[in-house]
Amino acid sequence: MVVKPEWLRVKAPQWERVGAVKTTLRDLGLNTVCEEASCPNIGECFKAGTATFLIMGPACTRACPYCDIDFEKKPQALDTTEPERLAEAVGRMGLNHVVITSVNRDDLPDGGASQFVHCIQAVRTISPQTTIEVLIPDLCANWEALEAILTAQPEVLNHNTETIPRLYRRVRPQGDYQRSLELLARSRQISPKVYTKSGLMVGLGETDIEVRATMTDLRSANCDILTLGQYLQPTPKHLPVIEFIPPEQFQAWQIFGLSLGFLQVVSSPLTRSSYHAEQVRALMESNPR
User: Fold this and answer.
1) Can you list the pairs that 208-215 forms with residues at least 24 positions away whose Cβ atoms lie under 8 Å?
2) Is residue 41 part of a domain?
3) Would you say residue 75 lies in a domain?
4) Sign of the dihedral defined by the CA atoms of residues 97, 228, 214, 58, in that order
5) What's the CATH code of the domain at 83?
6) 115 with 135: CB under 8 angstroms?
7) CB 115 within 8 A of CB 102
8) Cis-peptide, bond into residue 240, ω within 30° of zero
9) Residues 213-235, buried b or exposed e (16+ Cβ, 10 A)?
10) What's the structural domain count of the chain?
């Protein structure tokens, strides 16, 4: 068993602030990926009054062996009130930037794209100054569904590649590396003004050369923003950690990523796809489209 190093320790959250966010979420019957996926940064983000909303869940139609989101429950029919409840939470919390993600809904013809659209529209109505980031699944390569989401004009379209090509069969058995790259490339073609983003988790047995090659592929797909973070095993049933990557390596990847032309590279052991996502507002101001 690989021992967790000191640099992966997180401070205990201040539960008074966390409790206030939890109360809002419970009052409105909403899910967050922070809770469902056992994110290590939940205390910091909830304390700051931010959250990544998980729509159409919490049951997922895929069984990725790294992810702690439930796949054993049967997915439910879409809740038509969810977009309005989400928008109300954004208003109550006074969010400047909101991240909306979802479970995989391969049971739906459009992969849930219509629900993303309704959520974006609802947030725009209640909080027009809030910037919106959508973290979407691959939609089973339904490019019309992707275009529908982009037509709703989120500021950021995020789709995580998660790992290197060699590990896809083990880590993302129902995913496809080239499909994910194509989704990002098509997003820029459909909506050139939308910033594209992706994320990688490391520590699953990849090499430095493989990480750099994947970063190069993402930049070739016109991905603007990249996050890199350490994979942490949620439970003994999930994929084991092969290696804990030291902070210096994350710093080296950040430097390499910026040299490739990424507008932003957030790279550290505790980085997650939506960690400090609100910083994108400053990026948009300095790199307007």
Assistant:
1) 208/249, 210/164, 210/165, 210/166, 211/164, 211/253, 212/253, 212/256, 213/164, 214/161, 214/163, 214/164, 214/165, 215/253, 215/256, 215/257, 215/260, 215/262
2) yes
3) yes
4) negative
5) 3.20.20.70
6) no
7) yes
8) no
9) ebbebbbebebbbbbbbbbbbee
10) 1
H runs (alpha helix) in the chain: 15-27, 33-36, 42-47, 82-93, 113-126, 143-151, 168-171, 177-190, 208-220, 247-260, 280-286
pLDDT of residue 37: 47
Pairing of strands 31-32, 52-55: antiparallel
Flag whether 261 is in a domain: yes
Q: How many CB atoms lie within 10 A of CB 285?
A: 8
Which range of residues forms the domain containing residue 45?
12-286
**117 within 8 A of 153, measured Cβ to Cβ:** no
What's the chain's length in residues?
289
Strands (E), 56-108: 97-102
CA distance 235 to 237: 5
pLDDT score for 44:
59
For residue 7, tell me if it sits in a domain: no
Token match 């790259």: residue? 181
| pLDDT tens series, the chain, 289 aa | 677 887 776 555 554 555 666 677 778 888 765 554 455 555 555 555 566 889 997 789 998 999 877 777 788 899 999 999 999 999 988 888 899 999 999 999 999 999 999 999 999 999 999 999 999 999 999 999 999 999 999 999 999 999 999 999 999 999 999 999 999 999 999 999 999 999 999 999 999 999 999 999 999 999 999 999 999 998 899 999 999 999 999 999 999 999 999 999 999 998 988 766 778 888 888 999 8
DSSP class per residue in 222-264: T--EEEEEE---SSTTSPPP--PPPHHHHHHHHHHHHHHT-SE
**Distant-in-sequence, close-in-space partners of 155: CB < 8 Å, separation ≥ 6:** 131, 132, 133, 194, 195, 280, 284
